[in-house]
Write a structure and sequence with these properties.
The chain is an alpha/beta fold and about 675 residues long. Helices cover about 30% and strands about 20% of the residues. The chain is globular, with a radius of gyration of 26 Å. The chain is built from 18 helices and 26 strands. The site of beta-D-galactopyranose (GAL) has 9 residues, from loops.
Length: about 675
Amino acid sequence: MPESQRPTLADATRGRLLFGGDYNPEQWPEETWHEDVRLMKEAGINSVTLGVFSWAKLEPRPGERNFGWLDRLMDLMHAGGIGVVLATPTSSPPPWMGRLHPETLPRDEDGRTEWWGSRQHFSHSSATYRRYAAAITEDLAARYGSHPALRMWHINNEYCTYDWGDEAEAAFRRWLQNRYGTLDALNEAWGTAFWSQGYGDWYEVLPPRRAHYMKNPTQVLDFKRFTSDALLECYLAERDIVARHTPHIPVTTNFMAVWQGLDAWTWAEQEDVVSIDVYPDPRDPFGGQSGALVHDMTRSQARGGPWMVMEQAAGPVNWRGVNHPKPAGLNRLWSLQAVARGADAVCYFQWRQSRQGSEKFHSGMVSHAGEHGRTFQEVKRIGGELAQLSEKVADSRVEAAEVALLLDWNAWWASQQDGRLSSEADHPQVVRAWHRALWEANTTVDFAHPEHDLSAYKLVVVPQLYLMTDAAIGNLVAYVNAGGTLVAGFQTGIADEDDRVRPGGMDVRLRELFGIRVLHEWWPLDAGEKADVEGFHGTLWSEEIEAADDVEAVIPYKGGELDGLPAVLRKGRAWYVSTLPEPHVLRTLLVDIAAEAGVRPTLAGLPAGVEAVRRGGLLFLLNHGRDGVTVPVPGRHRDLLTGADVTDTMELGRYGVAVLELAP
Ligand code: GAL
């Protein structure tokens, strides 16, 4: 089907915001199912995700089918007015598969098998696994494709496995043959002249298994690219099956937040609905920003349209060292924040907290405390409010961002290599720092791939792109030449797409763009070390740069080895920041550059910790602080959540939220 005719999230939401979660009723006796429906209705649940981990129940022995229980559940949900996001169960194969077909089990880089007894123990490259996965998907699609409760397909769950086993080895080799054509080209791209690594036969080429010392970085980079593609093949095989049966039903697979394993730009293009699992730490003082970053990424992957929170936690998770509950109001705040940033579906892992298994201490919407517990009471409130907002919000768009942050998985992968100069300068941490500066300045941002069309943005920010293709560099240069403003952070444009260092240590076109005559040395900083710069401190990294004559403005390093050399350079509309300034300085710098580029914050004069986002003509105000605040909101408005009239200012309590509509 041509992409323009593929269904969208709107085909699943049908004009409402979706509210619900993963429902694992096979863990409970059937009486509980009826109780569940009663509570779901009470809480305004209109969507459940079924079957994510049901393979052993659906196919108890090879080829056998046990659909009766799922038939009853689908009917029960339909009778209760609850739509179903039906998962293919292929992320957790039944034990019989590993026993009968050990080749379906993945192996780690030491050659050790990942056995069944947990989950996600499948080899993406195993032909046997793929055959069984296709068969169960086919039968699910045939059986439930026309069921009236079906709203969406959820393929697998959080694709994330790596595999260094034999079938993966063969598949990696095929992938490389496809990429390079000849061994000579591979040898050239991987730089195998180094350390006597030259390959004379394709069978010598392996996935990067356990080795004595540092592995070939391009081999590792290609293995990450291959893994993302191999998992994508698994997804596409199942997607094509369900799409053939039900061309009108949208398909998704849930991404993990800021997850290295999958190139989400490539994957998102293959989804009708982009969905995400988002779990900020309730104790993290920047949990609100952490959520906003994930929301902005996901919305951007959904090309600005509505997207889905497939999973979040109503209370604690159970996979951190110490797992904190959400204080009263935080679940509501973060749920409405997702809606503000474009989500049309707010769902959880999981509906009812388990009593057994590895996740019994992970929260559910119905916690161990049951329906009278605080967690469920807050869930009910959120359900009610989402229903209230549905009509005005569903299927609307977040106000177009004027700023884009560039992100590329290839650059992230390559930046993580063993032989790098600093493991302190961690890529996601650097991206977070730049996003935080704009979030605190109440400036809505999109994420974009460096080869995307950037012409709609007034400001493009490159937190760090260690590796850049020629096309990406050309794109940035053209963007600035066409009048755009560009700011780049350190370690940008160093390597080409094979991870070969560009002559001069940074691509010459970029050096010209930023006014860098010579990049003499990189000077990474130790953890906690600060570089003195005029007016501020830099962290993580510094650089010994000689500016070109045509550089207009420069903020120099002060003292030490880099004394007097430029820390920040400006040439026309192109800025280069060779260190990571402290948060308030980075914020001020970006605010000034953004203002000069004509970018305006969503709302001026907001108290710290208050986030403002416009969506569908509504103004969402979110107080991430634990204290009440007075917020200036010039004009006359109505708060859609309380019905109250608001003129010029309003009070927001701890974790308070308002959704304002301009008064007529
Ligand atoms: C997700 C996963 C869920 C559940 C959840 C717990 O990664 O998809 O099945 O394990 O984490 O936070």
